[in-house]
Amino acid sequence: MQTDVARSRLRELILDGTYPPGARLTEMEVAAALEMSRTPVREALRALAADGLVRPAGRGVVVVSLERGDLEEAYQVRAALEALTAELAATRQREGRIAPADLAALRDITTETATATAEGRFAEAVLLNRRFHRLIAELAANSMALHALERIWDQIHVSTLRSLAPPSRPAHVSGQHEELVAAIVLGLADEAARVARAHVLDTRTTTSQEERA
Asked: Is domain 68-212 annotated with CATH 1.10.10.60?
């Protein structure tokens, strides 16, 4: 469907910084950039507004960036949701409802993320990190939590795009990932929730320090 294609492509352009926070977009400009008609672009912009990535402004939209207070709230909600999905994933693993292949995939993405970070391939590491957290949410098998996290991840990513930098403590970040995976594999629901929550809140603390630097 053309609208879905337009939405996906436009979302990618926002997330990769081609259209940064504050950028004003019109149907005509986006349609020309995507080489599509204005109708699917119009619907795509409406969908992205509902997702919180853009807001109406005159005859077009503006790419949104969360203010500091809203960003703090977003991280708090993300921490709660990721604690929930980690807990659910660990519970499902304890009950034997997660396939060995899925656990192997989780271990693989953990290793790939740590390697990319350690080698300074930061752009790749950011994408891998998103896949890592998304896979845990998928293993939780709660579609509402996954949908809510997708929205929050996008908003946080766009809002912190200008301050993104290699982790100041890459070994610490990778260590938390490994702790989280270990808790899920062992079926330790409470421990998985604790590590997931701490990891997200540590990420916010580090990001806040970099914003002030």
From this structure: no
In the block, tokens 């999905």 appear at: 85
| Cα gap 59→36, rounded to integer Å | 18
Whole-angstrom Cα distance, residue 112 to residue 50? 33
Cα separation values, 85 from 14, 132, 196, Å: 26, 12, 9
Strand bridging mode 24-26 / 60-63: antiparallel
What's residue 165's pLDDT?
A: 57
CA–CA separation, 82 and 149 (whole Å): 8
Could you tell me what percent of the chain has a pLDDT over 70?
92
CATH 1.10.8.60 fits 2-63, yes or no: no
Residues of the chain with CATH 1.10.10.10: 2-63
> pTM score > 0.85 for this model?
yes
Averaged pLDDT, 44-60: 93
Q: Specify the domain boundaries for CATH 1.20.120.530 within the chain.
A: 68-212
Tokens at 169, concatenated = 């403590």
User: What pLDDT is stored for residue 122 in this prediction?
Assistant: 85
Positive or negative torsion for Cα 47, 21, 77, 121 = positive
Radius of gyration of the chain (CA): 18
